[in-house]
Write a structure and sequence with these properties.
Blueprint (H helix, E strand, L loop, with lengths): L1 E8 L7 H15 L3 E8 L1 H5 L1 H14 L1 H14 L3 E4 L10 H7 L3 E6 L12 E2 L2 E2 L10 H5 L7 H13 L1 H4 L4 E4 L2 H10 L6 E3 L17 E4 L8 H8 L10 E4 L5 H10 L3 E3 L8 H7 L2 E4 L9 H8 L4 E4 L4 H5 L4 E4 L3 H29 L2 H17 L1
Parallel strand pairs: 1-2, 1-3, 3-4, 4-7, 7-8, 9-10, 9-12, 10-11, 12-13, 13-14
Antiparallel strand pairs: 5-6
Helix pairs in contact: 3-7, 10-15, 13-15
Length: 385
């Protein structure tokens, strides 16, 4: 079986779990014998072009002539059985759906966020959930709010591209939603329910967990929806060392929050941004992972990695987090400083009671054996249809 994987990578300056997920998928599919041809573009192309170049390049989302030309040549040369799409914007046009069908390939799209409707992809703006663009054929509110990169002009380009390719965006032969709430979003957008399947992300199985470490780990992009400020407010309610140490890893717009918290507390370490290869050692050193998301979180890689290592997860009850953690993989709290502080106390004291359940949740729902088997079975069903 031959599969063309198509993805517009996010900027290297902003840590992206989605980029990591796509690389893991490519490696995993190859490990089970699938012939994978990656077609990857990077939004760093826009950054290097400067603002004027970014506008011209982002406008290619409406036509994406170079990407479509590239893909036409790849499809003609490789003749893949399946084209598996991830992020398409801003450098890869949704025209790829019809192009793939024209060349006889089935199309699968993994939906990672809400960008079919929301320019930012998060349904989150100015510190709170925002659904202003839901139900609109054109995302005018997102343009007015400059939801893409804080730029009205670039937001206009993105909204135009999404509106222009609404028909193509509904035409994949199958859709993978990473969590049940994202499946409902896809159906509401217009995907036929029978085409949408829930398959979460995976990671390589690290094997039987080591003994729990101590304290809590937060590892994420430092954007408002990820909840670093919420975590800082909750941690400030605890006496020093009441929950062991908090280790913070990552970077982004809210970096000053991490720096200030580490400077003001003797029980907080801020390590900056680290390579994905450093995460396993950090997980082995911790007792639990905290995910204080304030948006309708989908399937963060740190949750999958934590469960794989038998580290329970303390998370807010947002989006796909209850599905990922399940009944025994950790604790769920509302996204408020008081509730999160109480959850931190419970996680620090009760991590050993949840470690086995966390590992079992990974084995049952997110292990490579489960996820890759379900993905390749989907490919085969489409080929046989």
């Amino acid at each position: 079986m031959k599969v063309l994987v198509v993805h517009n990578e996010y900027r290297a300056a902003l840590p992206s779990g989605e980029n990591l997920v796509v690389r893991r998928q490519i490696d995993g599919l190859r490990a089970v014998g699938v012939d994978v041809i990656p077609y990857l573009r990077s939004s760093d192309e826009l950054t290097r072009a400067g603002r004027g170049g970014r506008l011209r390049a982002a406008a290619s989302a409406v036509g994406a002539s170079d990407a479509i030309g590239d893909l036409r040549r790849v499809l003609k040369r490789e003749r893949p059985d399946v084209v598996h799409l991830h992020n398409l914007f801003p450098l890869i046009s949704a025209r790829v759906v019809d192009l793939a069908h024209h060349h006889g390939a089935k199309v699968v799209q993994t939906v990672h966020n809400f960008r079919h409707v929301c320019i930012a992809g998060t349904y989150f703006r100015d510190g709170q959930e925002c659904f202003d663009c839901r139900g609109h054929a054109f995302g005018r509110p997102g343009v007015q709010h400059a939801c893409y990169r804080g730029s009205t002009a670039e937001s206009l380009v993105m909204a135009t591209a999404i509106a222009a390719y609404r028909r193509q965006l509904r035409r994949p032969d199958a859709v993978i939603a990473l969590a049940p709430h994202l499946r409902e979003h896809c159906i509401d957008y217009g995907f036929p329910a029978e085409r949408v399947e829930v398959i979460p992300n995976t990671t390589a199985d690290p094997g039987e967990p080591t003994s729990l470490g101590s304290g809590l780990l937060f590892a994420a992009r430092f954007s408002a929806e990820k909840g670093l400020t919420l975590l800082a407010e909750a941690w400030a309610r605890l006496p020093p060392h009441a929950a062991g140490r908090l280790t913070i890893v990552g970077d982004g717009p809210e970096r000053p929050v991490a720096v200030a918290l580490a400077a003001s507390r003797p029980d907080v370490d801020y390590l900056g941004s680290v390579e994905p290869s450093a995460i396993p050692a950090l997980l082995q050193a911790t007792a639990a992972v905290v995910v204080p998301s304030r948006w309708q979180e989908v399937c963060p890689t740190i949750v999958v990695d934590a469960l794989a290592h038998g580290r329970p997860v303390l998370a807010t009850d947002r989006g796909g987090l209850p599905f990922l953690i399940g009944r025994d993989g950790g604790w769920l709290v509302s996204p408020s400083p008081g509730a999160l502080a109480d959850g931190i106390r419970r996680a620090a004291a009760g991590a050993p009671t949840k470690a086995v359940g966390a590992r079992q949740r990974f084995l049952d729902a997110m292990s490579p054996d489960v996820v890759l088997t379900r993905t390749t079975d989907l490919y085969r069903r489409l080929q046989a249809a």
